[in-house]
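Note on ligand handling. Small-molecule inputs were canonicalized before submission; formal charges were left as drawn, and no protonation-state enumeration was performed. Where a ligand contained multiple stereocentres, the stereochemistry in the source SMILES was retained. For flavin mononucleotide, this procedure yielded the string shown in the input block below.
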Amino acid sequence: MIKKVKLGSSPFICPMPVFLVGANVGDKPNFLTVAWGGIAGERPPMISIAIRHKRYTLKGIKQTGTFSVNIPSKDIVVETDYCGMASGAQFDKAINCHFDIFYGKLLNAPMIEQCPLNLECKLVHLIDLGSHALIIGSIEETHINQTCLTNGKPDVTKIKPFIYSAGYNNRYQVFGDSIAKAFSAGSTIINREK
Ligand SMILES: Cc1cc2nc3c(=O)[nH]c(=O)nc-3n(C[C@H](O)[C@H](O)[C@H](O)COP(=O)(O)O)c2cc1C
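Structure output:
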């Protein structure tokens, strides 16, 4: 039997994604790093992020009712970490990171050109969960670098995202080898148990 150790009631999962979430606060774009987030629905496409109430970016999300989720590539890991350490209340992070900002159909959800994948989102729900607000947004448009497509579909090996590994060593890590085909490898068991 595998020996399990209890970690208590804790928000640890692995891996965690790394997003740069953007919003205009006043007239300035601001971005924070978010690891607590993920896809929340397909029809309509929805995303969720957990943001601590005191974050400066949250002000902008509440003010404008919009936000962006930008997926950084490994080329901007330093800027991504910086956006998770410095607050827009004190620093102009977009300028300090030399981010080129663009806007899409929502007009006021700032997106980062240097991130290969960008989602424009409308705030749909804000749920107070104690330390954090759970923000649920509808994904209104998805932008991707043309160079990150293969046969017209997003190619993760070209997007080069990275994950956040909390736990003992607190690292950002790139994806490893492809190990099996999804919605396919499990057929071995389906066929065996027929
Ligand atoms: C890897 C990493 C992941 C983070 N994930 C979150 C998160 O999911 N939610 C959150 O509220 N803050 C998270 N933070 C902390 C914020 O990004 C950080 O406090 C940031 O400075 C807030 O910026 P702002 O005040 O300009 O909004 C994370 C930081 C790092 C480095």
